[in-house]
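Private note to self, pasted from the team thread so I don't lose it. Backbone tokens:
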């Protein structure tokens, strides 16, 4: 998978809430920028003006009456926009795109988590991304009880506990299904998805990630 330095590279991070994805993205971005690469850091849902508005809607605990299908279509709408507006152009310019969550989250949260049909999710994902799967995806795997403690602490620190609490409010069986779902989905996509033990230190995780992104060599 080695690629010349002027070729765009698309890397995504996935996992349960609170597994440390954003820290990893920050670390990796700094390292790649120091090595002279242009790096675009993104998060889903979000990353565009429209996407951030959709994010506010879908993560607002006030909207706990959203149907599973409506929730799904909001994620896909935000994704279609970020792909068209940000990700494709950045890759075309030869930049590195690091995204916190992407289409795998839909398969796992809406499929394994909410119970929607995985085949339908695959085709809806494809409407949004038009075949643009990442070059590499890392799943940060962690015991959901530990991860949830981290997510709650972070939300409280950021003052997000009210606005962004819809998933953090889910019960432990949901989070356990998410963990198992990511592992199952990774086992179906072994060429692209690498599962990392998120209990490792941030530095340790970054080295594990780098060892699995041979296009940066
Ligand atoms: P966020 O606060 O960004 O959580 P995290 O830090 O764990 O990424 O909220 C995003 C939430 O949206 C997260 O709980 C997972 C969920 N989600 C889906 O259910 N489907 C999706 O397609 C995406 C992108 C996210």
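Design output:
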């Amino acid at each position: 998978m080695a690629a010349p330095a002027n070729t765009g590279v698309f890397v995504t991070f996935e996992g349960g809430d609170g597994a440390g994805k954003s820290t990893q993205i920050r670390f990796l971005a700094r390292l790649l920028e120091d090595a002279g690469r242009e790096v675009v850091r993104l998060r889903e849902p979000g990353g565009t003006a429209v996407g951030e508005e959709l994010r506010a809607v879908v993560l607002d605990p006030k909207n706990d009456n959203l149907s599973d299908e409506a929730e799904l279509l909001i994620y896909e709408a935000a994704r279609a926009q970020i792909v068209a507006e940000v990700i494709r152009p950045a890759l075309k310019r030869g930049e590195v795109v690091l995204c916190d969550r992407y289409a795998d989250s839909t398969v796992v949260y809406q499929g394994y988590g909410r119970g929607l049909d995985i085949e339908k999710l695959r085709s809806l994902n494809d409407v949004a991304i038009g075949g643009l799967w990442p070059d590499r995806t890392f799943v940060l795997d962690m015991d959901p009880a530990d991860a949830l403690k981290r997510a709650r602490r972070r939300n409280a620190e950021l003052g997000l506990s009210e606005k962004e609490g819809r998933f953090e409010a889910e019960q432990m069986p949901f989070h356990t299904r998410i963990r198992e779902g990511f592992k199952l989905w990774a086992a179906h996509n072994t060429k692209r998805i690498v599962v990392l033990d998120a209990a490792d230190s941030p530095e340790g995780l970054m080295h594990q990630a780098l060892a699995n992104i041979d296009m940066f060599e």
